[in-house]
Amino acid sequence: LAQIYLDAMQRFEASHPPALEVLPLRYNVEQKMTEIYRRVVSDGLVPLLRHLNSRSDPEEVVTVMVGVLELVRLRGVFAEQSLPFAEIYLRPGDRALSPRELLLQGENGG
What we know:
single chain, 55% helix, 9% strand, mainly alpha, 3-stranded antiparallel β-sheet
């Protein structure tokens, strides 16, 4: 009887894997947007690929990229690349963005 119970429990475990654990996000888009925007405004020209390569966490790299794309969409930052696979440079766009506007864009997801 005990062996039948153990077999049944093992079959149940095999057919019902544990639930996926969802970890809280360590980075958020609005913070990265603000960080990048301030750097571009203060430095004038920011090498994006070099900036991304200095990050060791893939989750942060993705969050930075989403933030950059959103800043380009808002025209707060322009992205330029002279040749395929060359460095991408960020420079100030033709639209000044307020801190409040950056926060609202991040919360709305675009």
